[in-house]
């Protein structure tokens, strides 16, 4: 057997194992209704017991960014929590969060609201200076949550 044939067999085996694992765990797309036009991605995808949350921004009912960083942070976290709830989870199930911020001088404003909303023990987190965000948002958050099935 040639090396190329052996590699093809190994690749085929890995692909088959991946396909079987995906079938066993299943995959569910979570979308929370909003007033804005739906973008071409899911709000979250549940694979087995793990939820992968897409980036969320905090637009108000008029699809505008709130006037203050604190109001925007509250709205972002409220929307994030609504997506978790739609998947049967809560903020306490978050294991990892990434916060993208267009201006890192808003770090204290974000943390003030984050501490009001989130409870200890906190998930692992990164706060990343991102430059300009869509719709001139200050914050965008994405994350991963895990909840053991009972």
Tell me what the structure shows.
With 150 residues, this protein is an alpha+beta fold. It has a single domain, classed as RutC-like (60s Ribosomal Protein L30, Chain: A), CATH 3.30.1330. Helices cover 35% and strands 25% of the residues. It contains three helices and six strands. It has helices at 3-25, 69-86, 107-117, and strands spanning 27-30, 44-47, 50-57, 94-101, 124-129, 139-146. A six-stranded mixed β-sheet has the order 1-2-3-6-4-5. Helix 2 (69-86) packs across helix 3.
Could you tell me the strand content as a percent range? 25-35%
- Classify the fold: give the CATH topology: 60s Ribosomal Protein L30, Chain: A
As a whole number of angstroms, the C-alpha radius of gyration is 19 Å
What is the CATH superfamily? RutC-like
- Described by the principal axes of the CA atoms, the overall outline is globular
Q: Number of helical runs?
A: 3
What are its keywords?
alpha+beta, 60s Ribosomal Protein L30, Chain: A, six-stranded mixed beta sheet, 25% strand
Helix-strand blueprint:
Blueprint: H1 3-25, E1 27-30, E2 44-47, E3 50-57, H2 69-86, E4 94-101, H3 107-117, E5 124-129, E6 139-146
Parallel strand pairs: 4-5
Antiparallel strand pairs: 1-2, 2-3, 3-6, 4-6
Helix pairs in contact: 2-3
Offer a quick outline of the entry.
The protein is an alpha+beta fold and 150 residues long. The protein has helices at residues 3-25, 69-86, 107-117; strands at 27-30, 44-47, 50-57, 94-101, 124-129, 139-146.
């Amino acid at each position: 057997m040639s090396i190329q044939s052996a590699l093809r067999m190994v690749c085929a085996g890995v692909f088959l194992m991946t396909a079987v694992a995906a079938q066993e765990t299943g995959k569910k797309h979570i979308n929370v209704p909003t007033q804005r036009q739906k973008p071409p991605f899911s709000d979250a995808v549940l694979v087995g017991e793990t939820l992968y949350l897409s980036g969320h921004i905090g637009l108000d009912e008029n699809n505008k960014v709130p006037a203050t960083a604190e109001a925007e942070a509250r709205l972002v976290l409220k929307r994030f929590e609504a997506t978790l709830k739609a998947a049967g989870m809560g903020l306490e199930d978050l294991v990892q969060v990434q916060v993208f911020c267009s201006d890192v001088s808003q770090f204290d404003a974000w943390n003030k609201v984050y501490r009001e909303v989130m409870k200890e023990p906190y998930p692992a987190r990164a706060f990343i200076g991102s430059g300009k965000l869509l719709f001139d948002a200050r914050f965008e958050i994405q994350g991963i949550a895990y909840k053991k099935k009972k």
